[in-house]
Amino acid sequence: MTTFRPAAALAFALAAAVPFAPAFASSGERDGRETRRVEESRALAAAPVDAAAAIAAVRAAGHGPVRGIEWERGRWEVKTIDAQGRRATFNVDAASGAVTPRGR
């Protein structure tokens, strides 16, 4: 006859669940990141200033060739060459097209 030992059963159940604990804990983080990604995609789609307009705004402000452009936190981040020939990064507001140096 088999004897049921509650303490042993509990220990076995806990040991079996431990490998899955990180997956359960991180699902909330993953959902949060996915939500932020969806919100950023919607903001990008709704932005009146697109990538081409952001580049044009930076060029109109007197800065040289554009080396790269990224959508970040509701604004365009444009990497270019400034008026003195140095590498520079500018933020372009997605709503107004205003150009500001990065960090301001």
UniProtKB/TrEMBL annotation:
Domain named PepSY: which ranges? Answer: 10-101
Q: Which residues, if any, are the signal sequence?
A: 1-25
Report keywords, A-Z.
Signal
InterPro entries on file:
PepSY
Question: Pfam families, from UniProt?
Answer: PepSY_2
Q: Which protein is depicted?
A: PepSY domain-containing protein
Source organism per UniProt: Roseomonas nitratireducens
